[in-house]
């Protein structure tokens, strides 16, 4: 129904859905921080699991809906393109955090572990793509392995957060994860949780509208699915992560900012699992093109650079932006140029 609208109304629906997702995410960031304090979960875990999953919901809907429609490239590129875009957002946030390099100030073992898990999860589709074209009931076995690995990673991330085997060296620029005044743990978390669930529902509805509009643009203008998926719907559905990152940095919740991006990206790998299940013409990993594979490789490379920055913890680079942030901007910019020229 949405796809049949005139172009003007189609664009209005697209921007309205994007705005609804973004504004819901702003409020969700505040609630996630409160929930983290009142449940003693901690900012890194709240960012990685609660906030990361919630702000990724719109993207889940886009990829799943595209896979149901038989467009494997759209579904796949929306997932991996979003991961690359969201990693870029941390580099942008680094330019806005003036006190020190963001990766230095937000030192947290849980974020390091989640970054390692993300590289592992993103590497799994590569093994499927390089391997034989097999599928059982339309689902490639690697999707099941990826899902189980994600669950294992979430459990181990919680263990790292609760009982770390090592701690980062504290400096004058390290930002501690401490409850804010008025958010004491003894207060009930149920009220902010209920409000958070409502915002998640709004984000999901917005994601459906964005998916329908994106599919319509592909059909009407003959655009490449990988182009629309990686640079239009992926970026728009990733705007919540961008907004929540900036809001979290402004609030001084640096672990929440970094954890939200890395944890959100880890959750985004499940887009591929759901897309493989929804895609009924066999394994989705063998129905994509080389451009989609390039965005997957870009996501792995940017995550590896980010992990290196979190370990190196450069205190102050040129203009107090870390070298890893500059590298991530260059990698993403190169990917965009190649995508536009090729698609």
From TrEMBL:
GO BP, one example? Answer: transmembrane transport
Q: Which domain of life is it from?
A: Bacteria
**Entry-linked InterPro entries:** NaCa_Exmemb (IPR004837), NCX_ion-bd_dom_sf (IPR044880)
Q: What is its main location?
A: membrane
Q: Where in or outside the cell? A: Membrane
Q: Topology with regard to the membrane?
A: Multi-pass membrane protein
Q: Which residues form the Sodium/calcium exchanger membrane region domain?
A: 10-124, 196-340
One GO cellular-component annotation of the UniProt record comes to: membrane
List keywords of the entry alphabetically. Membrane, Transmembrane, Transmembrane helix
Q: Which residues cross the membrane?
A: 6-23, 44-62, 74-93, 105-128, 134-152, 195-215, 227-249, 256-274, 294-312, 321-340
Asked if the Swiss-Prot or TrEMBL record annotates the protein with the keyword Cell membrane, the reply is no
Instruction: Name it.
Output: Sodium/calcium exchanger membrane region domain-containing protein
- UniProt organism field: Palleronia abyssalis
